[in-house]
Amino acid sequence: MDAFRGHPHPSEEKSVTTIGYIIGSLSSTSINRALVEAIAKLAPEGVELVEIPIAGLPFYSQDREADFPQVAKDFKQAIVDVDGVLIATPEYSRSIPGVLKNAFDWSTRPYGDMSFSGKPVAIIGASGGPISTAAAQQHLRAIMGHFNAIVMGQPEGMIQYAPGLITDERDIANDGTKEFLAGYLQAFVGLIERVRKANA
Ligand SMILES: Cc1cc2nc3c(=O)[nH]c(=O)nc-3n(C[C@H](O)[C@H](O)[C@H](O)COP(=O)(O)O)c2cc1C
After folding, report:
1. What span, in angstroms and rounded, lies between the C-alpha atoms of 200 and 197?
2. In angstroms, rounded to a whole number, what is the distance separating the alpha carbons of residues 117 and 96?
3. Fewer CB within 10 Å, N or C, the chain?
4. What pLDDT digit, counting tens, does each position of 35-78 carry?
5. pLDDT class for 3, splitting at 50, 70, 90?
6. Does domain 17-199 bear CATH number 3.40.50.360?
C-alpha cells in the first residue's frame, strides 16, 4: 500500500462544486470567519461553500489513535468529500494558530492516511497588520506541501483588515477588495476544475 495514498476525487460526475472551508480561529468575532462568509456570498451559481469545523477536535495525542475519536474521523471524511478546501488562517505569533495545526495533525493520522493528499487547497487570511497573514501563510504552504495537497499559487489571499471592510451582512465595503475576492474564488474553482479533468 502507498503509505501516503490519496483519495479518489469526489465529484467527477457532479454538477455542483463543493468547497469546504476551515476557519483557523475559534473567536466569536473572527475577522477570518467574516471574510469567508463574505466570499461565500460571491460564489457563482453551481459553487457551494460548506464549513469543515475544527472546534470540536480534541488535542491530538498518539494515545488517542487506538480509539480514534469519531469527531476526528468526521473531520477527515469531510475533507475527502469536498472538491477543494479553502483555509482561512489568522496569524498568531508569525505562524498559524495552534487550533489549526492540531486539526491538520489529525488529518494525517492514522499513519499513511493523509486526508489532504491530492486535494485542491486555497489559502487566505485576514489581519490588521501591514503584512497581513503572509508569515502564517508561508508556514501553511509548507505544511500543505508535505501533505501532497495541490495548493493554489496565485492569487495570494493576504487581506489587510480594517474595521468596516466587511459589513454585518457580510458584504465587502471596498469595491477593489470585492473584485479581488471574486477573482480569487474564480481562480480556485478553475484549479478545482483542472484537477477534476486530470483525474477523470
Ligand atoms: C496570540 C495572538 C498572536 C497574534 N499574532 C499576530 C501576528 O503574528 N501577526 C498579525 O498580523 N497579527 C497577529 N495577531 C492579531 C490577529 O491578526 C488578530 O487578533 C485577528 O483578529 C485574528 O483573527 P480572527 O479575528 O479571525 O481570530 C495575534 C493575535 C493573537 C491573539
Report:
1. 5
2. 20
3. N
4. 999 999 999 999 999 999 999 999 999 999 999 999 999 999 99
5. very low
6. yes
